[in-house]
Amino acid sequence: MAAKNENGIQLPQKLNNDHGVRGIAPVDVLINTFELNLKGAPDMVYQHELRFVGEYQMKKGREGQLETRELAQGPQNDECKETRRELHWSLWRILLDQNANFFGSEKNKFSYDCALLLYSVRRLMVNGEMREFVINAESLNALSVRSRAYLRSCERVKAFLTATEEVEVRNMKVTEPGGDQSVCQFLELLSTQRMYEKNQHFVFGNRMFEKNSVLQLQGICGKQSGILLPRKEKRGLGQKG
C-alpha cells in the first residue's frame, strides 16, 4: 500500500521480497592490468635522490656572484611540469654519458622518475653518501629548444646524488596496511621508463599521450572561417524586445 510522508505527498509502495536474497549469474569484468613477472628481477635495487641545480649570474650590482635554483621546482601547470620532465631526462642522460667511469656503460641498469628518485641495480655509494657532478654550458647546448628556453641564461648545472636506501623487489608485505611502498614506486617507474627514453609521449601525471597522434574531431568545433553570426538589432529606450 502506498504511504504518505509528512508533507502529504504520496510515495510509491516499497518492494518486499520477504528479506530473501536472489542469486545472480557471475559477471565478467575486463580490466587493463598486466602481470609483472619478477622471476628474473634482482633481489635488491638501490634508491638515490638526484637533484639538479641551475647556477645563474646575479642581476646588476652583484656581478660575479651566482644564484642557484632547484630545477625540479617551478609552476605546477601541466605545460611546465612536462617541460621539466623532458629537461630532467635530458640532463640525466648527459650526466650518465659524461660520467661512465662512475655509473658504468649499461644505461638499462637505472630507472629515473625525472624529478628526484633514481634507482640502480648495483650499489653506487653507501647510504647517506653524497656526490657532486657538474654539467657545463657547452653540454647544455645539446638540449632541445624547449629545455633551453626553460633554463634561460643558466651558466651551468650541478647534480647532487645521494644514496638513500635499499629496496627489496620481492618484498610481498607491500600489499599489507602500512607496508613498504618503495617497491610499488620502483615498479611503477620501471613500467613507464621506456616511454621516457623514446620521448614519443607527453606525460601528465599517470597519463601519457602520443606526440604524433592525430584524432579527427567529429562535427564543427572551434573557430571557423566564413561563418557569420546573426547581427543583434539595436533597440531604443522604451522599446520592448
What this model shows, in words?
By secondary structure, the protein is of the alpha+beta class. It has a domain at 44-208. It is 22% helix and 24% strand. The chain is built from 5 helices and 10 strands; from the N terminus they run E-E-E-E-H-H-E-E-E-H-H-E-H-E-E. Strands 3, 4, 5, 6, 7 and 8 form a 6-stranded antiparallel beta sheet that branches. A two-stranded antiparallel ribbon has the order 1-2. The longest helix is centred in the middle third of the chain and has 21 residues, at 78-98. It starts with a strand and ends in a 31-residue tail after the last strand. The mean pLDDT is 81.
What is the element string, with H for helices and E for strands?
EEEEHHEEEHHEHEE
Described by strand count, sense and barrel closure, the largest sheet is: 6 strands, antiparallel
- Distinct helical segment count: 5
User: First CA to last CA: what distance?
Assistant: 52 Å
| Beta-strand percent range | 15-25%
Mean pLDDT, nearest integer? 81
Q: Tell how many strands the DSSP assignment holds.
A: 10
Identify the overall geometry. extended
SS-derived structural category: alpha+beta
Rg calculated over all Cα atoms: 29 Å
Q: In terms of per-residue confidence, which ranges show pLDDT below 50 for 5 or more consecutive residues? A: none
- Helical content stands at 10-25%
